[in-house]
Amino acid sequence: MAEDEFLVRFLSIFQDIANTVLHQVDNLPHVFDPAVAPDDMVRFMGRWLACNWVDSSLPDATQRDIVRRYSQLLQWRGTRRGLQQLLELISGQPAVVTDSGGVFLEGESSGAAAHVRLEVASVGWANDEDLIDIVKSELPASLTFELVVAGRRVWPPVDDGSGGAPSQLQEVR
Fold it and tell me: What contacts 34, CB < 8 A, 6 or more positions away?
């Protein structure tokens, strides 16, 4: 049988297919590792983790780092620690998060709506609008928040008194 040229070529087709399948199975764990996964898979993992705000124009290494670090932040999503680390991930700068929350005995809370103040020195690779959208997606819906970037209040919008659309920027003193 080994001397039959047709049979050898015919069986080599199946051997090639089997080798391809084995190669894919052997590499399967690497497909889900942001450090070595194909670029498209990294972006897919980001969307799967609800990190669909990653800018695809960023360098691939930056996108990989964001997806890897964001996956570690998920356990802290919506908390002060999670918000601070997220802002630091996006901006590359230290961030300060203060909130009005706490644990109260029944009947002892102030009853005021919970509020969070987020301060960061830079928007990093994002822009103001992107950062606002990211923060909105990370905070619980019942919270109000104030976002300050490099001393400018970018959220909530401020009415500048002109009767037109509110200005989104205000110097914070």
Answer: 42, 45, 64, 65, 67, 68, 71
What distance in Å separates the CA atoms of residue 116 and residue 105, rounded to the nearest whole number?
21
Nearest-10 crossing angle of helices 60-73, 39-48:
30
pLDDT tens for 34-46 read 888 888 888 888 8
Residues 46-102 have pLDDT tens digits of 888 888 888 888 888 889 999 999 989 989 988 889 999 999 999 989 999 998 877
pLDDT score of 173 more than 90: no
| Contact between residue 173 and residue 159 where contact means Cβ atoms under 8 Å apart | no
Copy the structure tokens of residue 166. 């509110």
Start-end of H helices in the chain = 5-31, 39-48, 60-73, 80-91, 128-138
The structure's pTM equals 0.70
In 3D, which of 83, 63, 81 has the Cα closest to residue 145? 83
Handedness of CA 132, 101, 97, 79 (dihedral sign): negative
